[in-house]
Design goal:
alpha/beta, Glucose Oxidase, domain 1, two-stranded antiparallel sheet, globular
Amino acid sequence: FKKTGLITFHGPVATSTFNEFSVKNFKSVLMNPESTKKFFNANPTSDENIYGVQSLVKGKAKGRLVGGNLSIMVSLIGTKYDVDYLNKIIFIEEIGEEPYRIDRMLTQLIQADKFKNAAGIMMGIFSKCEPKEKDASFSKSFSLMEVLKDRFSDFKIPVIYGMSFGHVKDKFTIPFGGLAELDTSEQSFTLLETVVK
């Protein structure tokens, strides 16, 4: 996207479970485009999403969707592929990282001013991201939600966790570069343009 501006898609891949929710969202974005399309979560609480959907900072934001996997986003900082987050809605997902690692990666993005002028932050479901085991030198480890609340609760832009994307069964197809509106009070986002012709 940084080099071409070409809209691409974050969603199911060939090895994904193409259940009814994922197929419906995939087709609605790629095969049945509309000038506006509103997305709501499949299931606010499930075995995959132990925290449900949480609006960490309520509000509305409008901007182009950019983001992806947290580890990859951090690895692109300072490279020629580092994305400009100015006035963008940043979508983030992760899998298999413990909370202390997520804390470190989010702190790096914050210290690099990546969120400073963003329009909003929309997080998917961070799969398998709880502490794996207790370290003998620590009596307690932070949970994923404790880390997210600590990192984002003071932000002045809308922030939400638990939307239907990431390494989960029920997933949205998100157009990277598409214009959207995020409403964390309503726990939804809306595509504001047709992203395919």
